[in-house]
Amino acid sequence: MIPAQFDYLKPSSVAEAVQAYQQAGEDAKILAGGQSLLPILRLRLAYPELVIDLGGIAELTGVTDDGDGLVIGAMTTHADIIGNELVKQHAPLLAQATETVADRQVRHRGTFGGSLAHADPAGDLPAVALALDAELRAHGPAGERSIAARDFFLDYLTTALAPGEILTSIRIPKLGSGWSTHYEKLNRVAQAWSIVAVAAAVHRSDGVITEARIGLTNMGPTPLRATATEQALAGAPATAETVARASAAAAEGTSAPSDQSGKADYREHLVTVLTRRAVQHAAGI
Amino acid sequence: MTRVNVKVDGTAYSDDVEPRLLLVQYLRDRLGKVGTVIGCDTSNCGSCTVLLDGLSVKSCSVLAVQADGASVTTVEGLSGPDGALHPVQQAFHDHHALQCGFCTPGMMLAACDLLRENPNPSEDEVREGIEGNLCRCTGYQNIVKAVQAAGAAMSTRANSAAAVSDSIASVSAVEASA
Amino acid sequence: MTTIDDRPDVAGGEIGQPRKRKEDAHLLTGRTTWTDNMVLPGMVHLAILRSPMAHARITSIDVSAALERPGVLAAYSGRDFAEIQGSIPCAWPVTPDMVNPGHPSLAVDQVNHVGEAVAVVAARDKASAQDALEAIDIDYEQLPVVLDMEAALAPGADLVHAHTESNRSFTWIFDSGTAGTGAPIDEVLGQAEVTVSRRFRQQRLIPAFMEPRSTVVQPQGDGFVMWSATQVPHILRTMLSLTLNVPEHKVRVIAPDVGGGFGGKLQVTPEEVITALVARKLGKPAKYTESRSESLMSAHHGRDQIQDITITARRDGTVTGLDVHLYADMGAYLRLVSPGIPVLGAFMFNSIYKFDAYRFVCEGVFTNKTPTDAYRGAGRPEATFAIERIMDELATELGMDRMELRRRNWIRHEEFPFTTVAGMTYDSGNYEAATDRALELIGWDELVAEQAERRARKDPVQLGLGISTFTEMCGLAPSRVLGALSYAAGGWENASIRVLATGKVEVVTGVSPHGQGHETAWSQIVADQLGVPFEDVEVIHGDTQSSPKGLDTYGSRSLVVGAVAVVHAADKVVAKARRIAAHMLEASEDDLEFAGGSFSVRGAPGNSKSIQEIAFAAFAAHDLPDGMEPSLDADATFDPENFSFPHGTHLCAMEVDTETGFSTIRKYVCVDDIGAVINPLIVDGQVHGGLAQGIAQALYEEAVYDEEGNLTTGTFVDYLLPSAADLPSFTTDRTVSRATTNPLGVKGVGEAGTIASTPSIVNGIVDALRPWGINDVQMPCTPERVWRAIHSGAEKSGRDPGGTVSWGGTSTTTSDGSGATDGGQL
């Protein structure tokens, strides 16, 4: 299949991109890595008049250390994130989850920012951004602003980005000592989207779980936090039993989809198992 | 129409293309590089895998205009100028890693990319490394063997090449000291 | 390799060697000739508009706006072709009263499945053609959608085809009592000591060959040349001629490089007919290449049966009868061999077992779905699945070891040849040897002990052991049998061999490879037969002009029919060469020995003529025996008297995560007996690939339709093919019981892995879950289905479903109430 015709723009600065995006309005699509957009265009599920390729803006790639956080350019590819020493050291959850995204070829093209802005709840990285309390920086006609990950994902494939606004970087606070993380994913075949996946970050001190942040993939129209489980874990002894008990509440407040990979009730069960495994693994239990 | 300048298998091309033209269509329909094939619409099958500036990509999910200024290696550029098979091609032949051969170009380029990063992958690493390439004929078993064998062959070759350059270096050192 | 037949190989030399393939060089370097690669001067590119509706009347269709689009040469709807397109042929009217509603290539008044072609655009390039499809204006009037086979057969059901009386195409019956091959089923059903009945579902699958279908047609005089990604150039030529009313000698069909088929390219497709029609209308070459999503919804599907199986036995485990009732989903139309596919299974449900009575009833049903037809195994995987699953169920019912039950009922080695209750005569086999070897290779006893230990420990990951002892009928051939089954064509195969002036050899074969390695295997055979170097043999195939006689490649027939024809042709060449040699050596033919490519006079060493010298003499024709025609060549057609019957034992160890429902293959062992082996490298490859497809049916693949008849698995995102990361490394081995029905002793291997593996996997999963009282998991055994089985099985068995959750973590304590927490959500 061949996409319908569109015009193509490859700006060399964020300002230029924002201006073009604002002018074109809803008729434009932003091209980051293109690994979701191009199949959509090929199947003619979208007919943009203009495609704005961010691939020419050098400042949108790379990982920098700002002291207590990492700033990751939105156009940094999955492959670059996996191989980045700063990410491995300060955000291993992101590295681990990114390694499970699609396949090597897709990871060479696909970008962190692109997968967050696409906001597919079955994608792996939105839940990770949520679990890591990422801040998303966007540039738009009204200037630059920062959006907390928990405020970013509004609905299925819908984000808080305003018209004309482009996601430019993602800041991930470093996890200090005592934190450990794990991404637990179940998919039917290696290439398939997660049926459910769980991103867990756990802080442990003296045999007690002091804090847990748990992001859920594909448990609703947006990525979600397992709030009830997080609350049950806070201050609980780091034992298999308490984790199992707390994880049993992982589906609270979710609205899992029903599709070919599983009906909602199966996902509601599965998320308890995967949450327990993710937290236990992260906490070294 | 947008201008693209690309180097494909060592040859430079400069063409005006529609922005919607996929890299794989550019390769096949404009450049006649029909060794690279199209197997799906959704970037699942990996049949169209090529190396873009050395990294494996699915050329059905890259616009030709995105390849502007880049260098592309297809299956047609794998073998040496003398026509000698690349170690990956040779290993695919030796281990009967292809049947109908449709997935083979993409599979071999995916294997090259994997071996670039991990010259001696374990069986599991190979299986995960080529998860983006579907084959309907072989059940993958011989492909996995072939990729491992190619890795071993390339390492041996690299080591012997390194040994040669080491010996040249030591000879030069001796000469320099003399 | 375990050899259990002590007869020596008929030939030494090349046969049996793991020769690397001749086919590889161009495939490895990208110098391929896929149909879609082809460009001809003046060629137009086609795009096809497909129905978004499963069942609707076309109330209006207007293609005129498409003609206004840039680069568009022509646009046609079904109304333009109504008088000339004929009907996609069905060559297998399985019963005299079978209903065939007719199958227009381009829908005229009505669409009957999503994806059916409704209009075609021809343009200067493919993008322009696709763009123009959007300008075609169609109005549909929706009709009630028929999807469920049983509902479709109910009185008063909505009809797929209004002009038919019902949605039933045919009912095909075999009864061993009537056929005289055994007792009437009614005799055993009434008085059985033990009866087990199950309903199994063979989900709908999609062949999903990697190369999408593509067709190029070049009009030529009164006829045309077609290049197509097909398994069956010869059948296609004859059928196109009949369908389009073009004289057969004016049609040439070429199958260039073809990227897999698996039965999916055993077809005369609407797209081939449409491309021919457009090319002929425009007088220009035309190309159509489908996209993957078009392929998944419009290329024929496979399987899709509801199987009601009843098996009867005595308490001691002796099987007495098998009663099979199938609903087979034909989809919206009958294609080339649609009705014959489930009927082929009729001869395989009894498998390797001996029993008294057998009945097989198959009802072919129309629904508003893509037509079904051949997919690797074609009727036999369905049969093998049902019998191997029900044998496990019977063993459970009897409280008997599953393998012991099989041993008690299978045909023993010394009983061959054996005529089965389905009327087939199995020539040779040794189920004991294959099974013993497989048990040894997998370490069966250790796995049984581990399973018991895991069960006792209530390990959340349970171990299940899968068994499949199977046979199949290969070499779709004996023309008389096919005639008796109402198949329209024969099953013979043709080959010719030409030894050229320089001693090089051309072999023309009527089979049409698309990945199997015929060029290599045929070269090995001919090298041995003629005593020429392997490299000196060129195999020609896949073009009705250069290989005019043949019936193509499907049903594991190429080697057992096609290669035997090659052997017969070689015999004739050697016979002619012997006469020439005798003449040249001035010796009696009877005094000549032929070995290593040379004729020598017995007792006179040094007095010899090589086949190359003889070939040159035959070419020069200066001094040939009186009356002999020049040229050293021969032609042979082989029509076997029987099918061949490969068999094997496939065992697997399945790990089932009872918490998530996810199943993993820990070990897979198969010992196949395919008779003599020409090239073990190729054989192993065929087995590996077959296993992957059979396993994929068990675990991953399913074509799913929603209530409106939309295919919801319309891309590879949803139709899940396994990747390398999803499959294990297989342990393969062989036993050899030579076929007694052909000179090579071969049985065929193309489908074995697919046929055998599916029940092995499912038996393994069900075995893991027996403690929950589970006796089936529907395919594909997705994590969700396994979990649901555990959940509902637990209710029936009195096991605590929450227990699966409370087993979690490193704790091995039993349920402490945390299951109740979870129970609220389940």
Q: Would you kindly provide a written description of the structure presented here, covering whatever features stand out?
A:
The complex is a heterotrimer of chains A (285), B (178) and C (826). Chain A is an alpha+beta fold and 285 residues long. Chain A has twelve helices and 15 strands. Chain B is an alpha+beta fold and 178 residues long. In chain B, 42% of the residues lie in helices and 14% in strands. Chain B is built from five helices and five strands, in the order E-E-H-E-E-E-H-H-H-H. A five-stranded mixed sheet of chain B has the order 2-1-5-3-4, with helices on both faces. In chain B, a hairpin with a 2-residue loop joins strand 3 and strand 4 (55-58). In chain B, helix 2 (87-94) packs antiparallel against helix 5 and helix 3 (104-117) packs across helix 5. With 826 residues, chain C is α+β, with helices and mostly antiparallel strands. In chain C, strand 28 (663-673), helix 20 and strand 29 (731-736) form a beta-alpha-beta unit. In chain C, helix 17 (518-530) runs parallel beside helix 18. The radius of gyration of chain C is 28 Å and the shape is globular. Chain C starts with a strand and ends with a helix. Chains B and C meet through helix 2, helix 3, helix 4 and helix 5 of B and helix 1 and helix 20 of C.
Cα separation of the termini of chain B: 63 Å
Basic shape of chain C: globular
Globally, the shape of chain B reads globular
Level of helix content of chain C?
A: 25-40%
Radius of gyration of chain B: 18 Å
Distance between the termini of chain C: 50 Å
